[in-house]
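Quick one, tokens below. Sequence please?
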């Protein structure tokens, strides 16, 4: 039996993690044109999360004291990543206290929490993974308040890095003031997973690093956690994660989804839990959803062929990720000023950029038949080239939906000659409308059975994906009016796999 991190919902940016789940599932042949016929190697791929990485969190110089902290932040100059480069930018935080830092709807803000998650009664499976039968959580430090003393904090200080991470969440709160509320926002906590091998050898300790996540626990406590950056990652990639404010806004987007898409989120979680109950533990490695898989040895896992089962939960997850990218784009002002080309990391500059028509391998960002075949494949595999997006990662599919949604939005604004000042409120309403429609579409889903576990067995994820995607296009389709030529071109370019599915309905005029 495996353990989740005791949250019922946990969604992350997962820039480089993310093999997902198990079990055989018949793949429906998606027909379509405009396909790149991309092929992917089958199986023989190790997990993308190497659990016992020797990574060390960066420690920032300690914070100033309450006595010296600003009662009102006023104008603050921060070095943030704008297009392709970092530069100092002065931003107004007027009315926000820095003694300690607080903002309505973001809950208690703390830094440097220290929590140990110890896994016990472990055995080693034949495939080299640990299976543990119990776990224990111990809080060594509940975290400390954040004090900001300087209008011009130096980069690489705790104050500066906290503020750049906070910026995206703050921007999102301005645009969606009542659509999400957190109990806590945690900056750079040390969350360590500890496992004692069954032979009694030295416990293995792994800190969670280089990522961020939104989570909600069994008590309904919602929090966003910005994990520390590791020295190793920072050396390898010169881009500082938390100087991209869109990342915080993306996590807040999951909070909004949890409210507007409440039924979808429940389904996403319960379907995964149902999978968990009936899965063969050795098959399950859904690290991008917060599941922890312990690799006893890197060698053992390298030889392993991973299988996965894309479920309805995987489909809902991809819409959740796409929505979070859309609201992050809205929070960033629907322009590129805060985006460095989306979520930039290593070589990835375009795959998660909601404004880039192409991915990093210069291909059109599109849901093709081969994209879907890869997503619904039961063999876990990496793309053939590092610049080719991994379509088994729900974030990648979500990024295609986000681009298509925003491209349809742009087309509508231009066609209706809407003033630019109206863009943000309009986009906000469209995005919220889309998720309410998705939520309704799921409630009406014809395969609905008596229990969520039944739905996992009998539900058709391919059909659900088509229905949810159709709701996205229908947000832009007034009743009794055909889609415009430009709208059709966007759909043909970016959703070619839907041709067969949509040829007999309201969207048929496009194909
Ligand atoms: Zn996410």
């Amino acid at each position: 039996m495996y353990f989740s991190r005791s949250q019922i919902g946990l969604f992350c940016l997962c820039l480089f993690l993310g093999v997902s789940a198990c079990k055989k599932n018949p793949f429906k042949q998606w027909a379509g044109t405009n396909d790149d016929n991309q092929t992917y190697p089958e199986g023989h791929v190790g997990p993308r999360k190497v659990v016992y990485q020797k990574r060390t969190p960066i420690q920032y110089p300690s914070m100033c004291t309450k006595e010296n902290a600003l009662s009102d932040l006023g104008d603050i100059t921060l070095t943030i990543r704008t297009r392709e480069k970092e530069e100092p930018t002065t931003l107004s935080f007027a009315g926000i206290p820095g003694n300690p830092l607080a903002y309505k709807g973001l809950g208690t803000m703390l830094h440097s929490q220290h929590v140990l998650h110890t896994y016990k009664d472990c055995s080693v499976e034949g495939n080299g993974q640990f299976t543990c039968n119990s776990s224990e959580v111990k809080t060594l430090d509940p975290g400390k308040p954040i004090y900001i003393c300087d209008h011009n904090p130096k980069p690489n200080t705790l104050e500066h890095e906290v503020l750049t991470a906070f910026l995206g969440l703050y921007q999102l709160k301005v645009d969606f003031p009542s659509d999400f509320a957190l109990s806590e926002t945690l900056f750079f906590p040390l969350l360590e997973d500890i496992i004692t091998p069954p032979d009694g050898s030295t416990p293995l300790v792994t800190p969670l690093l280089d990522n961020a996540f939104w989570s909600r626990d069994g008590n309904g406590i919602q929090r966003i956690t910005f994990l520390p950056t590791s020295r190793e990652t920072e050396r390898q990639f010169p881009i500082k994660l938390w100087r991209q404010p869109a990342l915080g806004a993306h996590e807040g987007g999951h909070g909004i989804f949890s409210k507007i898409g409440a039924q979808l989120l429940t389904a996403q979680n319960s379907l995964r839990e149902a999978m968990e109950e009936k899965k063969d533990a050795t098959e399950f490695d859904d690290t991008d959803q917060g599941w922890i898989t312990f690799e006893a040895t890197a060698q053992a896992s390298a030889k392993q062929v991973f299988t996965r089962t894309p479920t309805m939960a995987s489909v809902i997850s991809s819409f959740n990720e796409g929505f979070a990218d859309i609201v992050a784009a809205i929070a960033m002002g629907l322009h590129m000023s805060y985006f460095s080309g989306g979520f930039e990391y290593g070589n990835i500059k375009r795959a998660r950029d909601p404004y880039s028509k192409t991915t990093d391998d210069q291909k059109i960002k599109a849901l093709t038949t081969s994209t879907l075949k890869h997503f619904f494949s039961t063999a876990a595999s990496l793309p053939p080239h590092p610049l080719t997006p991994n379509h088994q990662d729900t974030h990648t599919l979500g990024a295609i939906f986000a681009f298509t949604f925003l491209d349809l939005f742009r087309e509508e604004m231009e066609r209706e000659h809407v003033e630019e000042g109206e863009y943000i409120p309009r986009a906000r309403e469209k995005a919220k409308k889309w998720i309410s429609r998705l939520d309704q579409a799921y409630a009406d889903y014809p395969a609905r059975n008596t229990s969520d576990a039944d739905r996992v067995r009998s539900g058709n994820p391919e059909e659900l994906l088509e229905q949810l995607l159709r709701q996205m296009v229908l947000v832009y389709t007034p009743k009794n009016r055909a889609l415009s030529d430009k709208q059709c071109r966007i759909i043909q370019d970016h959703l070619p796999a839907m041709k067969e599915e949509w040829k007999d309905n309201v969207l048929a005029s496009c194909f």
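Residues 7-510 form one domain. The chain has 13 helices and 13 strands.
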